[in-house]
Design brief:
12 strands; alpha+beta; about 20% helix; 6-stranded mixed β-sheet
């Protein structure tokens, strides 16, 4: 069963669904207690998302190779999906090429679900502060002021690689302007 989630953002309700409600996480359900293995997976997801945010903020796009799988797909970063780590790295390099374009991401909410042995899913939210001149970036998103605050929602799919580390295989980005 799915339940609506309403986000209040400057008086506008944005609706989403919670696909993880009642979903199995390891051997427990969200209505029951989580096992230690589930808590470790959730902490790993949070760490990976923190690395993603820090990579963008310090413009270390090579570090994204430790976040995304080689064949990852980024949806919402432009008019068409971006496929492959090289294309994702190039996209972020182009987006952040202006030295005066600065961001500060804080990942504050992470919902993990479908925590299976080799695949996982999460929905996370990040507050973002943008600093710099007015620019047209992110597939047409316009920063018309010298600073902007907004929220991003990421729907991520993960797989465990051959070394046992999580990597994002698909990331869907939605910008929620507040």
């Amino acid at each position: 069963m799915q339940y609506p989630l309403a986000l209040l953002c400057s008086g506008i309700f944005l609706f989403s669904t919670l696909p993880w409600t009642g979903a199995t996480t390891g051997n427990a359900t969200t209505s029951g207690s989580l096992e230690l293995a589930d808590v470790i997976v959730l902490a790993s997801i949070q760490q990976l998302l923190s690395l993603f945010s820090i990579s963008l903020d310090i413009k270390d796009f090579a570090a994204l190779r430790n976040v995304f799988a080689p064949d990852a797909v980024l949806i919402g970063g432009g008019p068409t999906p971006i496929t492959g780590i090289e294309a994702i790295e190039e996209f972020y390099t182009m987006t952040f090429q202006n030295e005066s374009f600065k961001t500060e991401h804080t990942s504050d909410t992470v919902f993990g679900y479908n925590l299976r042995e080799t695949t996982k899913s999460s929905t996370s939210y990040a507050a973002v502060a943008y600093f710099g001149p007015a620019v047209l970036e992110r597939g047409g998103f316009l920063f018309s002021n010298s600073s902007a605050l907004f929220r991003e929602r990421f729907n991520n799919e993960y797989k465990v690689n051959e070394h046992g580390a999580l990597r994002i295989t698909q990331q869907e980005l939605t910008i929620l302007v507040c």
